[in-house]
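Input/output pair, single chain:
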Amino acid sequence: MSPRTEDVTLYWPKGLFFWKPKRVYASGRVQEGKREGKWVFWYTSGAKQLEGEYLGGKKHGVWTKWWETGAKWTQGTCVRGRMDGKWIEWHANGEKARESHWVMGRKDGRWIYWRPDGSIEKTETYDHLTEQVQDLTVCTDLEARKMVKQIQKTAVNKNWEKMVGRPIADLVKPWHIACWVLIFVVGLGVSQGESRLRGVGLAALLAFSVTCLIAWMARDRYRR
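Output:
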């Protein structure tokens, strides 16, 4: 039985601008649920942003990224999702920005950095035998934003866990607190017409009820 394949077109998220027409973000083929073969990504303006091939859902082969102006941004080779060989990056004005070397995700050899005016900024030397593997590959601006958000979210959760302890952190998340504050303020505002003290009590009771409900829903997951 041949693998199930289908052509896929992805669109940029509209967010609050739901009335705007769809803008193509990426186009390629999916095989057995994984990206396969050539994929092309575009900016919201319609300019090509990134192009390359996938093998089993991982970047493989030559990948190229362009600035929105059409000038080349970076180019290099990936081997099953890891940077390998020589990678070159350019400034938006076309001047070379960096030349790097990789051995299956490990930095290697002489790296050179250039300023936008073409002068050398610095050089670095690495040995792949002593370097840690880095799962870094060229990505679109949208993917980069998502990665930054995930890093920030992870940092917030770690700090929250240090502050309140793991048992509480597993049951109560920072965004729960924001919801409770909002509920408290709304409840207080609704009940202001009768009695300030009564309003505070009702809002506090509502927030406490929501807290108990969330804790009850999460108790089984925490015990496992």
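Helices lie at 141-164, 166-171, 174-190, 196-223. Residues 61 and 77 are 5 Å apart (CA to CA).
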